[in-house]
Structures
1.
Amino acid sequence: MGNGKKYGGWLGSFILGLAIGAGWTPCVGLALSSILVLAGSSESLYQGIGQLAVYSLGE
């Protein structure tokens, strides 16, 4: 722990973030777009809020 070595730096962090983002986007994109369409077309504001809240709990 206290040996002073630094692994990766900002460039390694950036590349890791790109890799995670690229892998995460296909999984979340379809589900999130579907629930946003359903919530946007729901009959009441509270029904849409409820759908988004349930989605948020599951993710």
Note: The first helix runs from residue 9 to 40.
2.
Amino acid sequence: MSTESQSVPVQVPARRTVIACVGAAGLAAALTACGSGSDSTSPAAGPATPAGNAGDGGGSVLGTTSEIPQGGGKIFAKEGVVVTQPTAGQFKAFSAKCTHQGCAVSSVSGGTINCPCHGSKFDVADGSVKGGPAPAPLPAAAISVEGGSIKLA
């Protein structure tokens, strides 16, 4: 039996191979971040139509009709809804969660509900997509208007 060791040639990857692998890993990391919903703005909390408070016979009070500007709206982040007043006395509600990647919408201006993450815009009257990458309208949320109060239904 021979006691001498045999050397095995070690292959060193070519520079192109190393650069391609590093680039592919970076691309994979970027795509994973884009698809995970881990944008700088956190997603809207809770469902669009949470259950009402026990014992009050209905949903929780969001606010008053005087808080909702005509042609605009107000975001109720805690409840995950945005309430709009497209025309005088007509109140609508939608999920405050963008249909693109679930970010919370951040403003209502110029007749649209606006998402800060990728620029999606939704119509205040019906929640339809007016711009950006959102694939679907904002889902409607059920509300009731009693006197000057707006409640989740």
Note: Residues 127 and 143 are 15 Å apart (CA to CA).
3.
Amino acid sequence: MAAAYTLSYGVGLVITARLLRRRLGGYLDGCRLIRTYGKLIVASALAGTLGWAAARAGAGASLTGTAGTSLDLAVGALTMVAGYLVLARLLRTGELSLLRR
């Protein structure tokens, strides 16, 4: 399901870029877009790995049953969010500064 979502997002990005290029008269800063998306992909992949590791680490040491699973999921999700924000800031992603305004 995640792979299908990623593929559909990529196809949508290509279609949108073509439509925008036509609408803007050929000007679309492709190098900047590729650089930004590259940074975001790196940040999200590393944050996903950190979240997975945090959830797996808690799986053996936390509560059992639904409560334990929920706690592990919450720890993994919070680790992913924090990791993504920190990594995006370290990679100097310009769009992150818009969130602080």
Note: The mean pLDDT is 86.
4.
Amino acid sequence: MTLLQTYPCATGADTVPRTVADAMDAAGPQVWDGMTVEVALSVMAAAGTRHLLVCDEDGQYADLVTRDRLRAVRDGSAYTDRVRLRDVADGAGPFASPLATLAEAERAMRYRRLAALPVVDEDGNALGVLALSR
């Protein structure tokens, strides 16, 4: 796996490591945690994305859900059409600071086997997503 966006490393004494902010994708669809699983899957399909950033009632980052995770919930025996994203949330989970280096974020993603890592600022706002290509 490699990062979706990579940058050549410059050489020299004044080299500054590239940050997560340099490589992240725009946040894309952000949805409220009160949305149902079925509606979230529809939003993903319409947006052509594999993940959604979930925000709480205050607009702060709450979770990142993937299409595979939501399909697993939908296909489970306990599923009803009333199940909401907040019911299946794992908590805020791992996320990256926009100031982290790409190398740090990539190591964390590989270690935790994550295909996407939310980028969240110090105030809890979702800024984007850092994703690995397949």
Note: Residues 1-13 have pLDDT under 50 and may be disordered.
